[in-house]
Write a structure and sequence with these properties.
Radius of gyration of chain B: 20 Å
Structural class of chain B: alpha/beta
Strand order of the largest sheet of chain B: 3-4-14-9-10-13
Number of strands of chain A: 9
CATH class of chain A: Alpha Beta
Number of domains of chain A: 1
Number of domains of chain B: 2
CATH topology of the largest domain in chain B: Rossmann fold
Number of strands of chain B: 14
Order of helices and strands of chain A: HEHEHHEHHEHEEHEHEHEHH
Helix content of chain B: 40-55%
Strand order of the largest sheet of chain A: 5-4-3-2-1-9-8-7-6
Number of helices of chain B: 18
Oligomer: heterodimer
Shape of chain B: globular
CATH superfamily of chain A: Aldolase class I
């Protein structure tokens, strides 16, 4: 049981949903990233996804890609993040998970990465470019370490395959709301809900929705059909623009508006 | 020439490291030894499965084979000749240097062998739009050509830096109705064009096929591209038997992503007495960022959906690369080349910008052929190899493309070098 499992157990008991903001590590620097994460924790967000910058992201849209470029240009290093992270996670109520490319994990060594990430305070990882076929070794290592390996299911995933992915997932299922890359979209991505309904018949894992969710209206439109909501680009965009303390308060206020929509479902 | 027998993969008994084991790759999970595989977002996985089954159905369909053969003969102009570079050989001394003239194909490079095959697959899958990435622009032109031939809408992603240095190809793509989208992110070269094409495909996968131009990317692309390009090596074997009564001693090809080399080498892999040499872009030197020689200086890693040799830092971030040649300016390489390197079936060397530019001029002056700057790397290495061999030996080079597209850039670079040396 990772802390992610504990979180959803409690939310389910209370009939509540999770709000999970995403923030890019090191954009504009790690200290600022930590401050933002602390704010998310203070206002009561349930989990935070920490994006690890990568030079060649395929699944990410322009907003998150640009944040990766800024962080890498500013000298982001994974080892340095992992060294600093315990000071942050020791004081957090919510769990944090990393979202990152398999290229980085492979380069670090699967076992070395998982044990270092767990020791630093990550409860799990989302690895969008490591599909089921390629995940066996990483999946086994994550299980050994009680480290959640959160896998993705998309609108293009056939149901039979979705069942297999669910069987290999721990923590929660990350359901990608749209066929496409990350980024804000004007319409609530509600077409995924039929597929989520079907998937519920085969898994008890929490199912959370991400990609394209950027407002309280989206949350209300989707409603209580999912166990949690992931908001990425809408936050990263605000971080990119933030210059003054007021701007950073604005990020908190935005997160609070989403959180309250989630809590009121 | 009948492709049917060649495209179908023969089922062979495998024993580690044997010649037959070397050719019965990839396995059903897309692995060439430990290399290859599939590292892409879940959104694309179903489309890759669809492509794999469409491909296997196609190569077992004699009508598909006939259609492709007909196109290769009447539209591309195959078989491409084997040509003795007599004055170049005399200049080097040593072995005879022969060219496999892929530069004489329609569109001026080997890329068309693959794009026609994949365009046929696109129609079999019922998809109505094609996207592609391009570096030097040769694959972009070949894709635009196939799309114009079949009447399929086409979008080509091209790094803004490559748009600048390969203007003639940009113009030609547009003339054939393709939309060229310059990519302004990252190093604004091939690698960024691939990222952008992948992102397009993430959203358009339901009705769009992505024609990858090299033996890179997730399974089944490295296999499909290699198989469509293998017409080069199969013809070369047949022509060698006719012209020499035997196979060449050494076969040389340039390697960026590695598609002309894979197509040339694959039919020769089982002929273990033939030496195979791949030539990477040595750029300006062997320090990180100055070259694009993934096999010579890189390490095993994951890039663009497959596990191969990659130029990356200790965090797995892709390193900047450099080559005077846009088609070789890529920080990764096809997984089968990684497999051939580790099994030592192919020897990989590099050729720097300077030598490639010199060779461009030498081939132009001695043979009346403008070789692509990419192919000039291969010829340069072949000249070194030939110089150490005897007059009875035969060194066969894949002249993968013509150099018209490079003429202006080569003139500019030569001027720049002259200025720097004064």
């Amino acid at each position: 049981m990772s802390t992610v499992d504990d979180l959803f157990k409690k939310l389910r008991a209370d009939d509540k949903r999770a709000f999970m903001p995403f923030v890019t590590a090191g954009d504009p620097d790690v200290a600022t990233t930590f401050k933002i994460i602390e704010q998310f924790d203070t206002i009561g967000c349930h989990l935070c996804e920490v994006g690890i910058p990568y030079s060649d992201p395929i699944a990410d849209g322009p907003t998150i890609q640009a944040s990766f470029v800024r962080a890498l240009d500013a000298g982001f290093k994974l080892d340095s993040l992992l060294d600093q992270l315990p000071a942050l996670t020791a004081n957090l109520t919510m769990p944090i998970v990393s979202m990152m490319s398999y290229s980085i994990i492979f380069r670090k060594g699967l076992e070395q990465f998982v044990s270092a990430a767990k020791a630093a305070g990550f409860a799990g990882a989302i690895v969008p470019d490591c599909p089921l076929e390629s995940a066996a070794e990483l999946s086994a290592i994550c299980r050994d370490h009680d480290f959640s390996l959160i896998q993705l299911i998309t609108p293009t995933t056939p149901l039979e395959r979705a069942r297999k992915i669910a069987a290999n997932t721990t923590g929660f299922i990350y359901f990608v709301s749209v066929t496409g890359i990350t980024g804000e979209r004007s319409d609530a991505p509600s077409q995924a809900l039929d597929q989520i309904g079907q998937l519920r018949e085969y898994t008890d894992l929490p199912i959370c929705l991400g990609f394209g969710i950027s407002s309280a209206q989206h949350i209300q439109a989707i409603g209580s059909a999912v166990d949690g909501f992931i908001v990425g680009s809408a936050i990263v965009k605000r971080v990119a623009k933030a210059k003054s303390p007021e701007d950073f308060d604005g990020i908190s206020k935005f997160a609070e508006s989403i959180l309250s929509a989630v809590n009121n479902l | 020439m009948d492709n049917t027998l060649y495209l179908k993969r023969k089922t062979m008994n495998s024993s580690t490291g044997s010649p037959t084991d070397m050719v019965s790759v990839p396995d059903e999970t897309g692995r060439f030894g430990k290399f290859g595989g599939c590292y892409v977002p879940e959104t694309l996985v179903d489309a890759l499965h669809q492509l794999e089954s469409a491909y296997h159905e196609a190569i077992n369909d004699s009508q598909f084979q006939q259609q492709l053969d007909e196109l290769l003969t009447r539209f591309v102009g195959r078989p491409s000749p084997l040509y003795y570079a007599r004055r170049l050989s005399q200049k080097c001394g040593g072995a005879q240097i022969w060219f496999k003239r892929e530069d004489l194909n329609h569109t001026g490079a080997h890329k068309i062998n693959n794009t026609l095959g994949q365009a046929l697959l696109t129609m079999r899958m019922g998809k109505s739009r094609i996207i592609a990435e391009t570096g030097a622009g040769q694959h972009g032109v070949a894709t635009a050509t196939a799309c114009a031939h079949f009447g399929i809408p086409c979008v080509v992603y091209m790094g803004a830096e490559d748009v600048r240095r390969q203007q003639p190809n940009v113009r030609n793509m547009k003339l054939m109705g393709a939309e060229v989208r310059p990519v302004e992110t990252g190093s604004r070269t091939l690698r960024d064009a691939i990222n952008e094409a992948m992102r397009d495909w993430m959203a358009s996968v339901a009705d769009t096929h992505y024609i990858i131009g090299s033996v890179v990317g997730p399974h089944p692309f490295p296999q499909i591209v290699r198989d469509f390009q293998s017409v080069i090596g199969r013809e070369a074997i047949e022509q060698s038997q006719t012209d020499f009564g035997r196979l060449p001693d050494t076969v040389v090809a340039c390697v960026g992503g590695g598609s002309n080399a894979a197509g040339m080498f694959y039919p020769f892999v089982g002929h273990t007495d033939v030496e195979l040499v791949g030539v990477e872009a040595g750029g300006l030197g062997n320090t990180a960022g100055a070259h694009a020689a993934s096999l010579s200086y890189g390490e095993p890693g994951v890039l663009h959906g497959s596990f191969s040799y990659v130029l990356q830092d200790e965090d797995g971030q892709t390193l900047p690369v450099h080559s005077a040649s846009a088609g070789l300016d890529y920080p990764g390489v096809g997984p089968e080349h990684a497999f051939w390197k580790d099994t030592q079936r192919v020897r990989y060397v590099s050729c720097d910008d300077h030598a490639a530019l010199d060779t461009f001029q030498i081939v132009a002056e001695t043979e009346g052929i403008l070789p692509a700057l990419e192919s000039s790397h291969a010829v340069s290495a072949a000249m070194k190899i030939a110089a150490e061999k005897s007059a009875d030996d035969i060194v066969l080079v894949c002249l993968s493309g013509r150099g018209d597209k490079d003429a202006a850039e080569v003139a500019r670079l030569i001027d720049e070098m002259k200025r720097n040396s004064h």
